[in-house]
Design a protein that fits this description.
The complex is a heterotrimer.
Chain A: H1 2-5, H2 14-37, E1 45-50, E2 61-63, H3 64-77, E3 83-87, H4 95-107, H5 118-149, H6 151-164, H7 173-180, H8 184-208, H9 212-220, H10 225-259, H11 267-277, H12 281-309, H13 319-344, H14 347-350, H15 353-357
Antiparallel strand pairs in A: 1-2, 1-3
Chain B: H1 2-18, E1 24-28, H2 32-35, H3 37-43, H4 45-49, E2 53-57, H5 60-68, E3 74-78, H6 79-87, E4 92-101, E5 105-109, E6 123-126, H7 131-142, E7 151-154, H8 160-166, E8 171-175, H9 178-185, E9 190-194, E10 203-209, H10 210-215, H11 217-235, H12 237-251, H13 255-259, E11 265-267, H14 270-277, H15 286-299
Parallel strand pairs in B: 1-2, 1-3, 6-7, 6-8
Antiparallel strand pairs in B: 3-10, 4-10, 4-11, 5-8, 5-9
Helix pairs in contact in B: 3-12, 6-15, 8-9, 11-12
Chain C: H1 7-18, E1 21-33, E2 39-51, E3 55-60, H2 66-74, E4 81-86, E5 89-90, E6 98-101, H3 113-123, H4 128-141, H5 157-170, E7 175-179, H6 187-203, E8 207-212, H7 215-221, E9 224-229, E10 239-245, H8 260-273
Parallel strand pairs in C: 3-8, 3-9, 6-7, 7-8
Antiparallel strand pairs in C: 1-2, 1-4, 4-5, 9-10
Helix pairs in contact in C: 3-4, 3-5, 4-5, 7-8
Classes of the chains: A mainly alpha, B alpha/beta, C alpha/beta.
């Protein structure tokens, strides 16, 4: 059983799948712990505790070879040798240091009056991402769908889009500032530039991958071009489009790092950048991990929602999950349900009852 | 109803036109001399001076871009970089000297290289055309050597510590905190020449766009008058620690760590401003320093437009020199 | 005719011949620019007529252009020579007057079964409530009224094709085009669906053009079988070798497979499509597949 789970195309049982999911995070964490806490693993430097008669000073990090040479030299000259313990370079903090940095990051008020708390910085970053991605999608998705549906349009639009998507979005930073000022607008613009062109191509490709048979079947049933788009192509690609958007949202985060450093510095990227400059790598790691966590949670939630959005894709949904979804979305669906009820209500069917009352 | 609305909109438009002028904007970035403005912001000294000014915290590169694009009225830069922006068409004047670099920029030699003279025939890694290049030329000149006596290897400043450690070069040029990192990474390495040996090679300016200076002369005079208060606050042992605490909070690092960067920066008070704003040849005057930077920029083809450096310096906004 | 048809059969063909022509295909040719810029001719000079309520099957080996033919009739591909007339009007593109059932499953996966059947009706601007009640009637006809609210992915292959037939018929086409609709089904399901299709055809006033590569299916279903042949020296594209009338009474039963008339038509078509070739057995090498100790003596 266990063996077959690891074969090509194997089918791991449900319980093993859960364990594997945990392992996906625990294994790298274990590797990181081992690298940090087992002094004989890596640890290429020595942190000087007591310089002795050497030219080092306490708190210095020295390459192991140089340290050994200094110790040997001291022994030869009959001087006090330097003392110290093996450490990793500053840019690899230990897990507990990062955990502490995360904790203090959220619990300590900002050093500067008026500066945002860490969670406010994160909130600001998420707002920038959300606006950038929304604007990108509002234009990019319709354009992509049209390009994927109308070959002539694809030939007109896609070569240029393909050309421009290789241009590094950060390089447009100065232009964005010149046009849009120094506040959030140029940051949003960078996210848009970074995701829009990819989005057009990805969506166009997804559209093209829609089973041609469905389009042809609709044509033989008398669908006009307009209705092909709204009634066949768009609903047909929705599940894949949804997946595309989940992936592209990840792209948006990679552009955030540059977006937040143009114009007025802000958000989680500035935090990471600033802490890096002063070599506070525990804070840098905390920031990076936070972004990863937000991305992972967003994706898990979107994936979970996706299962309910497309009931026709035949994904298994547990009863508890379905109930939870129904409860969460009830306020959203209520007007729609009422509208449907009102439609179902047929005044003619109700009329014959009137004589009974009379 | 519509008419009333139109009238209201018109009224609002007129009112907004007549409202007070918008606050002046200054882009400032992470260098002790510039971060010091934060003290005045936190202490409310601009309000006391009766001037509306908004300081916007940026990265150094983006702050120059925003200034070049006219999105901020003023920016904090080195006197050399002001000329680079000027060559690209941005008319501006430096009105306040915040400091000069006093050791935070340095040439670091590997173990066995004891002085600049030992560099003859050796390799030096630094960013060509940037400030450390200028520093190296100055160091060579001071030791009776020429640029052709060394081989310059182009290395990004952030990579200089590793390059020095790998033994590919015999010395590197870098500024704080990268220079400190190099000293830590390569045991036995030492600074051969720092900006302390050539004070005035790198002045740090607060630079205002010429059109804003012309329009808001009174406001800029008030802002310039705040600087001496800041310099005095940092000079007074009783208040210095509080000043450093405020600055450290701006860059979001502990004050003790931030204090390490302070000695490499020589803050200029009112007297210092007047001393270094005096027209003279040589690095003792910002005019002389800018002339040196201009010659360097031309020689290294950073730009090819001849500039009159005195057009970009204007000490007249500062209060009168103390008696 | 290979064998003299019995009287009721002859009578039936006379009645068909008296009906108006629904589909008129004249000297149809189709060529396209293939890989490497070479011009490929798919069809060459194909002419035939289909009369009202006739059941026509088209059979041929792969590469004879039968799929291209039905796609041209549907308006999904464009011919380069000749013309196609439906009720006297030239066919220029796809339209609801020609319903189509494809080999692949083309039910819209995001619509329930009944909404699939309603699709063509709604394209014809019928109100939703009326479309729904009509769609349910068509589902009843194909025996799937109970699956009205199911998603397509919950149906078997045979059920999906029945819904596809209902969907095509609901739009009330003049002619129903079927492109190997049962090609992906297992033999049992396929036989059931064949019978089912004939029952539907009995009850619905529709003309059928049915493409298949299965000679039995072609003969058993059809009034007339068109035999298409792949290109050869005389014909640059797929061409129409013969139109064979099937001299069997209607309704068809499985037992008719054993009638001499059936066998004769079947053999005739078989010979056209697969002319007898000398056996090549001696030329084939023999592979020994035995393991040690397992030799066959």
């Amino acid at each position: 059983m266990v063996r077959s789970a690891w074969r090509v195309g194997g089918d791991p049982p449900a319980r093993l799948s859960g364990v594997l999911w945990l392992g996906a995070f625990l294994l790298p964490l274990a590797a990181w712990c081992a690298l940090s806490y087992l002094p004989w693993l890596w640890h290429p430097q020595v942190l000087i505790a007591e310089p002795g008669d050497s030219s080092f000073s306490a708190g210095m990090r020295i390459e192991r070879a140089a340290f050994a040479a200094a110790v040997a030299e001291a022994a030869r000259q009959g001087q006090r040798p330097p003392q110290g313990g093996r450490v990793n370079p500053v840019f690899l903090p230990a897990p507990h240091e990062v955990a502490r940095a995360l904790w203090t990051g959220f619990t300590t008020p900002p050093l500067r009056r008026g500066d945002p708390w860490l969670h406010q910085s994160l909130g600001h970053s998420i707002t920038v991402i959300a606006w950038g991605f929304l604007i990108s999608a509002l234009v990019g998705v319709p354009l992509g769908v049209l390009c994927g549906s109308v070959p002539a349009l694809s030939r007109l639009v896609e070569p240029f889009v393909d050309f421009i998507r290789y241009m590094p979005a950060p390089a447009f930073g100065a232009l964005c500032v010149a046009v849009l000022g120094i506040n959030d607008a140029p940051k949003v613009a960078i996210i848009v530039v970074g995701t829009f062109f990819q989005m057009v191509l990805v969506v166009a490709n997804t559209t093209r991958q829609l089973d041609r048979g469905l389009v042809e079947a609709a044509q033989t049933l008398g669908a006009s071009d307009k209705r092909l788009l709204t009634r066949v192509i768009v609903p047909g690609i929705l599940p894949n489009l949804y997946t595309d958007m989940r992936i592209l949202l990840g792209w948006a985060w990679t552009y955030l790092i540059v977006a937040e450093l143009i114009g007025a510095s802000s958000g989680i990227s500035w935090y990471i950048n600033q802490q890096g400059k002063y070599r506070a790598y525990d804070n840098v790691f905390a920031g990076i991990i936070l972004i990863g966590l937000i991305g992972l949670v967003t994706d898990l939630v979107l994936g979970w929602i996706g299962r309910f959005l497309f009931p026709w894709s035949g994904q298994q949904v547990s009863r508890a999950s379905a109930l939870a979804f129904a409860a969460v979305t009830l306020p959203l669906r209520l007007p729609w349900l009422l509208l449907r009820l009102a439609r179902r209500y047929d005044p003619k069917a109700a009329r014959p009852q009137e004589p009974d009352h009379a | 109803m519509l008419a009333v609305r139109c009238a209201l909109a018109l009224l609002l438009a007129v009112a907004s036109l007549r409202a007070a002028e918008p606050p002046l904007t200054v882009a400032y970035s992470d260098w002790p001399g510039w971060t010091a403005w934060e003290i005045a912001i936190q202490k409310g000294w601009f309000k006391e001076a009766g001037v509306a000014v908004e300081f916007v915290w940026m990265e150094y590169g983006p702050s120059m871009e925003a200034f070049q694009a006219g999105k901020v009225d003023a920016v904090t830069v080195t006197n050399g970089d002001q000329l680079v922006m000027a060559a690209a068409g941005k008319a501006s004047k430096g009105i306040v000297l915040t400091d000069y670099s006093n050791g935070n920029d340095m040439i670091v030699g590997r173990p066995g290289i004891a002085s600049i003279k030992d560099l003859k025939g050796k390799k030096v890694g630094l960013e060509v055309g940037l400030v450390e290049h200028l520093l190296l030329l100055k160091a060579l000149e001071a030791n009776g050597l020429k640029e052709s006596d060394v081989t310059i290897v182009a290395v990004p400043t952030n990579d200089t510590p590793q390059t020095l450690a790998s033994g590919q070069v015999d010395a590197i040029g870098a500024w704080y905190p990268v220079s400190g990192q190099a000293l830590e990474l390569v045991p036995g390495s030492k600074p051969l020449f720092t900006s302390k040996d050539a004070p005035g090679l790198i002045y740090d300016f607060t630079v205002v766009a010429s059109e804003s200076l012309a329009k808001r002369k009174a406001d800029w005079t008030k802002i310039a008058a705040v600087w001496p208060r800041i310099a005095a606050y940092l000079a007074d042992p009783a208040t210095r620690d509080d000043g450093i605490r405020i600055m450290a909070a701006r860059v979001n690092v502990p004050a003790a760590k931030y204090a390490l960067a302070m000695p490499g920066t020589f803050f200029l008070d009112l007297a210092g401003n007047h001393k270094h704003f005096a027209r003279a040849e040589g690095l003792g005057s910002v005019y002389g320093s800018s002339a040196v930077a201009h010659a360097f920029n031309l020689a290294n083809k950073v730009y090819d437009k001849p500039l009159k450096v005195e057009d970009f310096i204007d000490p007249s906004f500062l209060p009168a020199a103390p008696k | 005719m290979p064998e003299a048809p019995s009287d009721p059969v002859a009578e039936r063909f006379r009645r068909i011949a008296a009906r108006p022509v629904v589909l008129d295909v004249r000297a149809l040719g189709m060529s396209f620019r293939g890989a490497g810029g070479k011009t490929v001719q798919a069809l060459h000079d194909v002419s035939f007529q289909v009369r009202r309520r006739e059941f026509l099957t088209v059979v041929g080996a792969s590469g004879c252009g039968k799929s291209t033919l039905v796609r041209i009739l549907a308006g999904l591909a464009h011919h380069t020579a000749g013309e196609v007339l439906l009720d006297g009007r030239p066919v220029t593109g796809p339209g609801p007057d020609r319903g189509m059932v494809f080999q692949g499953y083309t039910l819209f996966p995001w619509l329930t079964v009944v909404r699939n059947v309603m699709f063509g009706l709604e394209m014809g601007d019928m109100g939703r409530d009326q479309a729904r009640s009509e769609a349910l009637l068509w589902l009843d006809l194909v025996g799937l009224a109970s699956k009205a609210e199911a998603w397509p992915h919950q149906l078997s292959g045979g059920q999906r094709q029945r819904v596809a037939i209902a969907r095509a018929l609901a739009a009330r086409p003049r002619i129903l085009l079927m492109d190997e609709p049962f090609g992906a089904l297992d033999p049992q399901t396929r036989a059931t669906l064949q019978e089912h299709l004939l029952q539907i055809w009995q009850q619905v006033d529709v003309t059928v053009v049915f493409i298949t590569h299965d000679i039995d299916e072609a003969v058993w279903l059809a009034d007339r079988v068109l035999v298409l042949q792949p290109p050869d020296q005389d014909h640059p594209g797929g061409w129409l070798a013969e139109a064979v009338e099937v001299p069997l009474p209607v309704p068809r039963t499985r037992a008719m497979h054993d009638l001499p008339a059936y066998r004769a038509v079947r053999e005739r078509i078989e010979r056209l499509i697969r002319p007898p070739r000398p056996p090549a057995a001696e030329r084939l090498p023999v592979f020994k597949m035995t393991a040690a100790g397992d030799e066959v003596l």
